[in-house]
Amino acid sequence: MMDPYLLFAQAFNDTMTKYTEGLLKTQEFMSKNKIDVGSTPADVIYVGRKIRLLHYKNEQIKHKVPIIVVYALINKHYILDLQPDRSFVGNLVRQGFDVYMVDWGVPEPIDKHLTFDDYIGRYLDRLVNMVRDNSSSEKVTLIGYCQGGTMSTMYTALKQEKVANLVTIAPVIDTSKDNSVVATLCKSIDADRIIDAYGNLPAEFLHRFYTMLKPFSQGIYKYVNFVNNIDDEYFRSNFLRVEKWLYDTPAIAGGLFKQWINDIYKRNALAKGEFYLCGKRIDLRSIEVPLFNIVASDDHLVAPQCSITLNQYVSSEDKTLRVYTCGHIGLIASKLSQNVILPELGKWLSRKMLNNNN
Q1: In terms of DSSP bridges, do strands 276-277 and 42-48 run parallel, antiparallel, or are they unpaired?
Q2: What's the CA gap between 314 and 163, in Å, rounded?
Q3: How far apart are CA 138 and CA 309, in angstroms?
Q4: What residues act catalytically?
Q5: Do residues 71 and 214 touch, judged by C-beta distance below 8 A?
Q6: In angstroms, rounded to a whole number, what is the distance separating the alpha carbons of residues 40 and 57?
Q7: Is 63 exposed, middle or buried (0-12, 13-18, 19+ CB in 10 A)?
Q8: Is residue 171 a contact partner of residue 153, using CB atoms and an 8 Å limit?
Q9: Which helix (H) or strand (E) holds 5?
Q10: How many CB atoms lie within 10 A of CB 299?
Q11: How far from chain centre, in Å, is Cα 331?
Q12: pLDDT by residue for the chain (358 residues), tens digit each?
């Protein structure tokens, strides 16, 4: 009988050999091939301070109230339009909605003082007004994902008269109930010291941060799996698109990053009603618009309870909570999202717009 330690050593050596092969093959494919993302046709109708507003083409719009999809300031927006058969925005377009998307761009060193006052009170408000004018609609529906869900919630509390419906997907709301590795790290880092040293949070920090969350599944086994499925063109294309997105990470404006860590995670100021935006205290209880809150039961980036509590805070009479058995990305880029989550969201939105005679 072979020594179990030798068996382990051999298995480990085989795994690391495949990991190295997978990593090298990934780099080779990405350097030699164009990785297509953002497949849903769209017009860029605004560019300013590196921020873009995309308007997706749709000749069969059934609903007057436009949708603005607000992504996070981490990574890039095209995870919501990664490939045709798993496109979040593409599904909404096919359902007859008038869809816009915010691309926050990449902050430069000069942007290190930007805060939520700028991104929400100035930039997002400007984009909302542009969509209202462009669509001849008094109000918009906001769909915010992850940090974008938090920002959409803040905006709704600030400018509720412009919002018809609020849809949040894994929003960071009550960090006192977030026991995820992400929350633990965020509550322990010295954001002031980092930003004082770098100005903006460097993209490299985010790369290392997310690899630390699942070092084996995200740092080793995914490349082993890539080698094992390298001849499957569909698998390979999907893998490379996600890999492109993971490493296409912008810096984060220093002022906003400090607020995100110090106010949202450490002080839990948003849930406590102690967060100020443009000089106004953001009170979640002031929100009365219809709410559809989408949460993943297996989310390792935002603990489910951190998001679920939004339904308890808002004063909306019409509020819906849906918890799906999937992970963070599965909410917006999976078969479950396409076949279950988006159809249910579409029916809910259709009813809201019908009730408003739109």
Answers
A1: unpaired
A2: 14
A3: 29
A4: 146, 299, 328
A5: no
A6: 8
A7: buried
A8: yes
A9: helix 4-32
A10: 24
A11: 10
A12: 556 666 656 665 666 676 666 666 666 666 666 777 778 999 999 998 789 999 999 988 998 899 999 999 988 898 899 888 899 999 999 999 999 999 999 999 999 999 999 999 999 999 999 999 999 999 999 999 999 999 999 999 999 999 999 999 999 999 999 999 889 989 999 999 999 999 999 988 877 777 666 655 566 667 777 677 777 777 777 777 777 777 778 999 999 999 999 999 999 999 999 999 999 999 999 999 999 999 999 998 999 999 999 999 999 999 999 999 999 999 999 999 999 999 999 999 999 887 765 4
Residue 96 Ramachandran class (φ > 0 left, ψ -120 to 50 alpha, else beta): left
> How, if at all, do strands 140-145 and 163-169 pair?
parallel
Distances (CA, A) of 133 to 223, 249, 315: 47, 32, 28
Q: Which helix (H) or strand (E) holds 335?
A: helix 335-336
Distant-in-sequence contacts of 336-339, Cβ < 8 A, 24+ apart:
337/86, 337/88, 337/91, 338/85, 338/86, 338/91
pTM: 0.89
